[in-house]
Design brief:
It comes from Pseudoxanthomonas mexicana. It is found in: Cell membrane. By secondary structure, the chain is an all-alpha fold. It has helices at residues 2-22, 35-50, 69-76, 78-92, 102-127, 132-161, 168-172, 174-195, 205-208. The protein has one domain (2-208): Arp2/3 complex 21 kDa subunit ARPC3, CATH 1.10.1760.20. The chain is globular. The model has no long low-confidence stretch (mean pLDDT 91).
């Protein structure tokens, strides 16, 4: 119990620090005077909250859920993604869907996958040719798979350190969840870049659509 309480307090402090560091990097200018952008951010945040409904809370105390972190990163950038996912963790907390509490849940389902997702997106932009198919496949599908894998690995390490029952389920479920998160992310990004590319902050028409 002491280790659990210590983890929750430490994770809460780290989560607040991460969110505070993200505040100066929030691109508010993209929302000012743009009702559509404001609605898209609000609807996306609601969708991230609804993803928590698909949760294995009753399976041996193990909590597995898709995060949507890579979609949030590609659409809004890392700062807005962190805050949108923080809302999801906070809303999930009273209903028992926040993994080990709001602080640990935020770190596992937001901070870790967002950090990995943003690093992966930057890497792809530097190393891959500006191709629409590669954007959806590599940044969307593969990026989503890597993000959920990082999230589940973080949960496994913490659960194993705390000697929680069912810790191994986080690793066992990861391959299937990687496929599910990849399909979710890649499918969402394919629809967005085709029908509403201006919703996606990391997608540049001049880079991906106009021939050189």
């Amino acid at each position: 119990m002491y280790a659990m309480a210590a983890l929750q307090w430490l994770a809460g402090a780290v989560a607040l620090a991460v969110l505070a560091l993200a505040v100066p990097r929030l691109p508010w200018h993209k929302l000012q005077g743009d009702p559509e952008a404001q609605r898209v951010l609000g609807m996306a945040t609601m969708a991230l909250v609804l993803l928590r409904v698909f949760n294995t809370h009753g399976l041996a105390g193990v909590q597995l859920n898709f995060t949507g972190a890579m979609v949030a990163v590609l659409m809004f950038g890392p700062a807005f993604a962190l805050w949108a996912l923080a809302v999801a963790s906070l809303v999930a907390w009273p209903f028992g869907y926040a993994w080990l509490g709001p602080g640990p849940d935020f770190l596992a389902t937001a901070a870790v996958p967002v950090a990995l997702g943003w690093a992966w997106s930057r890497f792809c932009e530097r190393r891959l040719p500006p191709n629409l198919f590669l954007y959806v496949l590599v940044q969307g599908f593969l990026g989503g798979a890597l993000a959920i894998a990082a999230s589940n690995l973080g949960k496994y390490l913490a659960a194993a350190w705390l000697e929680l029952p069912g810790a191994g389920f986080y690793l066992l479920a990861t391959p299937l969840m990687m496929f599910g998160e990849a399909f979710l992310t890649g499918g969402a990004m394919a629809l967005i870049v085709v029908y509403r590319p201006h919703w996606c902050s990391t997608f540049d028409d001049a880079r991906y659509l106009r021939p050189r």
